Amino acid sequence: MADLQDEPPSVGIGAEDLPAPAVAVAAGALDRAAELLAVHPVADGCNTLVRTLHQRPYHDIETSDTGVDTDIPRLRAGGVGAQFWSLLVPSAREDASGDQVLSDTLDQIDTALTLMRRYPDSLLLALTADDLADARNRGRIASYLGPVPGRTLIDSLGALRAFHALGVRILAPAGAPWAREELTPFGHEVVREANRLAILLDLTDCPPAVACRLAGASKAPVIISNTAAASLNPHPGNVTDEVLAALREANGLAMVTFDTARTGDSLHAVADHLDHVRAIAGPHGVGLGASFGTGPGHPRPTGLTDPSGYPRLIAELLERGWPESEVALLTWGNAQRVLRDAEFTSRAAGHRR
Question: Pick from 157, 288, 292, 329: CA 20 to 30 A from residue 259's CA?
Answer without folding.
Answer: 329
